[in-house]
TrEMBL record:
Bilayer-crossing regions: 208-229, 235-253, 330-349
UniProt keyword annotation of DNA-binding present: no
The name this protein goes by in its record: Uncharacterized protein
Compositionally biased intervals (Polar residues): 127-139
Segments for region (Disordered): 1-81, 115-179
Organism: Coprinopsis cinerea (strain Okayama-7 / 130 / ATCC MYA-4618 / FGSC 9003) (Inky cap fungus)
Keyword vocabulary terms for this entry: Membrane, Transmembrane, Transmembrane helix
Compositional bias per record (Basic and acidic residues), positions renumbered to this chain: 115-126, 143-156
Sequence ranges of Low complexity compositional bias: 25-39, 162-176
């Protein structure tokens, strides 16, 4: 029904001429005696701006003097609106309760009766008596309502009263502001065709609150997963964390997609409206619409929609700019982003949980293993045969061949001591019987070194820089020697407290300096004039029970021209210049220790810790005959002096510069001080630095030869690889922040349909309503009949066109 047709219904018979006259000549209407009434017709398919409502011109003027009531004052009447809609109408149901079920109507109008001051009484609707039908300009509402067709329904709406300054104090007019409020109020948006510059639907508060609750529950869920996965095997740890992160990710992803689906559905309906509004277009294809509905919730539907909008000319922004200038592809791309993020959300949450492997040894040993660890008789014979070439006076400084090549010593901490070991040999582990087939810990006895070095006291007296034979002497007092043993927690040997027999140390014709206390000297060392900067003298090897003691004196002789910052305990002048002297005494203890060696396939063995000097302990299974449980110190005593000399030769070879000037420093010697590592950086010999480097040198040249082919019992502890799980704060924070941000935009930024049409979706409610009210019309529907197969229906309708009918 057009607006003109509705105006014709509102004008009573016989009043057409007066209405036209009144419209053409308002002055004449004001001069007549009857009152004039101005119905304003407001189609609800038009968007009204607030500024437009007060200036809409009068459409019709008519009077009904027969219904004039002299006994009623203007203040007894209320202005009203009349809502007229094609029955049945849910729009009217939104305003006033209906007396019958109301499906959707296609046409709805709002009629505003604007009462004006005239020469007679005004007649408007009186709502003071609710028991009667409301009055109209024709008396009662029945004659007025009868003018509409039978399939139309009318409802009166009361408006607030207002005083007009142009009228007398006793008169009142309908409030035009009330009309505007009625047409623009959000709760009556269905009557006002979605008022104002509103671009977004009502936010999805309920879904957004649920989404925030799910985001808040993610961290406790992952925390529970890490607690349950801790201490489990790798398989079960990964299974537990995967189950929790998958469940949490799917819940959060489902929430995101459900909120974002409204954006995609709005974009689909906008595409239908855009293509329908395009001149000459039959609409969009049915198979495209079916494809959107089937894949809704996935990124594929959004990509297909983007492609189809590119293909439909009506969706082009330049084409639709006059009625809808929004950038719909941006909304669709946001939907694609949300669905893609939701797809990978479980994986991102899985990455937010870090799983590490912790190797834990079994509580009991797996079995007794037999290792090649002790010296055999053949090893002792081989070492003794090679000892002849290890002379102190030999200029070659030969050392024994080390099977490990150039091993790096291992320093482990035991209580207050540092113990130095030769690294475990791969051949030693490979010789285990039975050979381990998995990673684990091997407990086996090993020889280790503890060392204590102290500077020589009173070097001015106890150092003889140059005797008659050209040799230098360093003497150790009883106090210096006895002070070294308590540090290593071992007793002082009684026979080493006796005074030194000087003839056993000094060369013939060499004399001692005056003032030396001969009774306090217990040890002495002679150093020939070889021109070497570092010299080491072995005083005595001593075998005490299960340990070996070795005492040595080291003398540093440097030309002071190479040490301008040197602080020496003694110095003399010779033909080649001035020479400074520094001396240090060292006490070494060789002991068997029970150590743990980590073994893993395809990796070199690694010594991990010391188990003090504990015995091997009980093992699962009997130790085979001929296999020792501990190291045999008796075999070591036969070769200990040879190995000590090998250690001295190795240190002399490493710390002296061959072919250099007499008493020139090497980088290794300068590293024994706290000076800078440069040619002139020597300052003063540091006993602590020297002790560390000497122990490492002896671990390389002495301890590496104490592991032989003699079978030795060992304990094998297989590893149990257990998992530890923790939450990665960075991954978790970024993932959760993106989820909250996307959810906020999806919940609050669902676009409205073009031309302020009410929201529609692709669910059954929206589709059924659109088909029933004929909002959607399709071609080829005439070919459909009952009892058709679904495949036949799809074949008929797939290429049909769908249009949106307002």
């Amino acid at each position: 029904m057009s607006r003109r047709e509705l105006q014709n219904i509102l004008i009573p018979p016989g009043l057409e001429a007066r209405a036209e006259d009144g419209h053409d000549s308002p002055s004449s209407s004001r001069s007549s005696s009857p009152s004039y009434y101005s119905p304003h017709v407001w189609p609800t398919d038009t968007r009204y701006e607030p500024a437009q409502i007060p200036v809409i011109p009068l459409s019709t003027q008519f009077t009904n003097s027969s219904s004039h009531d002299e006994n009623r004052s203007p203040d007894d009447f209320d202005p009203y609106l009349l809502v007229a809609s094609r029955r049945p109408s849910p729009h009217v149901e939104d305003v006033l309760p209906s007396r019958s079920p109301d499906p959707v109507a296609n046409e709805t109008f709002v009629i505003d009766f604007d009462a004006r001051e005239g020469q007679g009484r005004q007649h408007t609707r009186d709502l003071s008596n609710t028991s009667t039908q409301p009055d109209t300009p024709f008396g009662t509402s029945r004659p007025y309502r009868d003018r509409f067709p039978s399939d139309w329904e009318t409802r009166p709406i009361k408006l607030p009263r207002s005083r007009s300054p142009s009228l007398s104090s006793s008169s009142s007019t309908p409030s035009r502001k009330g009309v505007r409020k009625f047409l623009l109020r959000p709760s009556l948006a269905s009557l006002s065709s979605r008022d104002g510059p509103r671009h977004f639907e009502r936010p999805q508060y309920k879904r957004f609150i649920i989404h925030l609750a799910l985001c808040g529950a993610i961290y406790p869920a992952l925390l529970v997963a890490t607690i349950l996965a801790h201490g489990k095997t790798i398989f079960w740890a990964r299974f537990i964390t995967a189950a929790f992160t998958l469940a949490a990710g799917l819940a959060l992803a489902s929430s995101l997609v459900e909120m974002a689906k409204r954006i995609a559905e709005a974009a689909v309906w906008a595409t239908i409206i855009h293509q329908t509004k395009f001149e000459g277009s039959p609409g969009i294809r049915m198979k495209d619409l079916v494809g959107y509905a089937r894949s809704m919730g996935s990124a594929w539907s959004g990509l297909c929609l983007l492609w189809d909008r590119h293909a439909y000319p009506g969706a082009d922004r330049d084409t639709r700019k006059r009625y809808d200038s929004r950038h719909w592809p941006l909304y669709i791309w946001f939907y694609v982003l949300v669905t893609t993020f939701s797809l990978i959300l479980p994986f991102l949450l899985g990455r937010a949980v870090d799983i590490d492997v912790e190797a834990v040894e079994a509580l009991k040993p797996f079995n007794v293993a037999v290792s090649n660890g002790d010296l055999s008789d053949l090893d002792v014979e081989r070492l003794r045969s090679q000892g002849a070439m290890l002379s102190v006076d030999s200029a070659l400084r030969w050392t024994l061949f080390t099977p490990q090549g150039d091993p790096l010593p291992v320093a482990l901490q035991s209580a207050n001591h540092t113990v130095y070991f030769s690294p475990p040999d791969t051949l030693e582990i490979d010789g285990l019987v039975p050979k381990p087939i998995e990673s684990g810990l091997l407990r086996v006895p090993r020889w280790g070194i503890r060392i204590n070095c102290v500077p020589l006291s009173n070097g001015k007296v106890n150092v003889v820089p140059r005797a008659e034979s050209g040799a230098a002497y360093v003497f150790t007092t009883r106090e210096d020697l006895q002070a070294m043993f308590p540090e290593l927690s071992i007793p002082v040997p009684e026979h080493r407290s006796r005074p030194l027999i000087y003839s056993s140390v000094m060369a013939p014709n060499d004399s001692l300096p005056a003032g030396m206390d001969l009774e306090s000297i217990v040890l002495g060392a002679r150093f020939n004039d070889t021109g070497e900067s570092l010299s080491v003298a072995q005083m005595f090897p001593y075998h005490a029970s299960e340990r070996f003691l070795a005492f040595s004196t080291t003398l540093i002789r440097l030309n002071t021209a190479f040490a301008p910052n040197g602080d020496f305990s003694h110095s003399i002048s010779i033909s080649s210049g001035e020479v400074g002297y520094d001396a240090v005494n060292c006490l070494q203890v060789y002991e068997p220790w029970l150590v743990e060696i980590h073994y893993a396939n395809n990796l070199p063995p690694k010594m991990t810790r010391i188990l003090e000097k504990k015995p091997l302990g009980d093992a699962k299974g009997d130790i085979p005959d001929g296999v020792a449980r501990s190291l045999d110190s008796r075999r070591m005593s036969n070769v200990f002096d040879i190995l000590q000399q090998n250690g001295i030769n190795g240190m002399l070879k490493d710390y002296n510069v061959a072919g250099s000037s007499r008493y020139a420093p090497s980088p290794s010697i300068i590293s024994l001080t706290d000076g800078e590592l440069q040619p002139l950086g020597y300052t003063q010999l540091d006993a602590t630095r020297y002790a560390h480097q000497k122990a490492q040198s002896d671990a390389k040249y002495v301890l590496s030869h104490l592991s032989g082919a003699e079978p030795l019992a060992a304990q094998w502890y297989p590893y149990e690889n257990l998992a530890t799980a923790s939450i990665n704060a960075i991954w978790f924070s970024v993932t959760l922040g993106i989820s909250i941000a996307l959810g906020t935009v999806a919940a609050f930024c669902t676009p409205t349909l073009p031309l302020s049409h009410p929201r529609r979706g692709l669910d059954l409610y929206s589709v059924f309503s659109a088909l029933y009210t004929r909002e959607l019309l399709s071609t080829r529907t005439g070919r459909l009949r009952r009892q058709m197969e679904l495949e036949e229906i799809e074949e008929i309708l797939r290429d049909s066109r769908v249009r949106f009918v307002n």
